[in-house]
Design goal:
With 73 residues, this protein is mainly alpha-helical. The chain contains two helices and no strands. The chain has one domain. It is 81% helix and 0% strand. α1 (3-30) runs antiparallel to α2 (33-63). The chain is elongated, with a radius of gyration of 16 Å. The two termini are 14 Å apart. The relative contact order is 0.19.
Length: 73
């Protein structure tokens, strides 16, 4: 994984978190709170897993065990 891919995945994680909050808010306007939570939970869970994976990958880079490749940009 190179540095630009890492940053892209971080942006995707941020977008998924934002999308889950927007989904919960819009769904809550139309349905009950529990329905809104069920609809937005998969997006938030996916974003959480992505953030955890990026955190672990970043720790491997900082520790020097598995450095990120330099971007060609």
């Amino acid at each position: 994984m190179n540095q630009s891919r890492f940053v892209q995945l971080a942006a995707v994680a941020f977008g998924l978190i934002l999308l889950s909050f927007i989904t919960r808010g819009v769904t809550r306007l139309l349905f009950d709170y529990s329905v809104a939570a069920y609809v937005s939970a998969p997006l938030f869970a996916l974003a959480t897993l992505l953030v955890i994976g990026l955190l672990l990958r970043g720790l491997l880079d900082v520790s020097g065990l598995l450095p990120l490749e330099e971007s060609d940009d």
